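Record passed on underneath.
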Amino acid sequence: MGDMLLWFSVVLILFAVGNLIANLTKAKISAVFVTLLLFLILFVTKVIPSDIIDRAGMTDAASWSVPMIMFSMGTMLNIRQFIDEWRTVLTAWLGIAAVIILVIGVIVTALGIVPKDILEKGKLKGFINMVVFAAVIPSLASISLTDLISLIVPVVAMFAVSIVAVFIMMKILPGWKIIGSKPLAFGVGFCQMLGFPTTYLISNEVCNAVGETEEERAYLMSKIMPKLVVGGLACLVSVLVAGVMAPML
């Protein structure tokens, strides 16, 4: 138990550093980026064990956090808002599929079975955000220093090309008209580089950092989060489809 609490505390401290920097910079420097970078550096230098999330007792919680987030997202949308998100899916260049949990959340909230924004009502949103973040961390543990060095140039080049392509499509060409906002369309277009749950985490931190009152944060959440989350899911589905089809080609 003492060992688990020790590693759980280490994880919390790293998350806290990321959140602190994001808050100080009004999310201009993302907590997601800072925290992932800290974990990556500590993994590569062997300062922390590769199975730190497991040692911290967060593996099981991380496995059910994503479905809970999807259900909670559904409880934040009414049926009209959910139907309107077809524009987001189209902007992400892929028809979304299999978002069953999200649909269930929308329906049970519309029927009054559960309250709107159920995680906020239960005061669990902060904890679930941390746990869903923990689900992303273990993938970094397998990266070695050699891998990191060899990946720097192609990753930077890929991001640069993607940013230019999305900028042209969503800022210069009329692709932004699908959503109706150039900045928002650019964000949705860039979901291809992030995917879910990263799009959820980033939209959550930006809304909390920029909104000065509870009402402002709630308004920003309702406008930004559904689009980025659905866009992230749509792009995630494209990756899964590509993985299935690649061996067939």
Observations:
- The chain is about 70% helix and 0% strand.
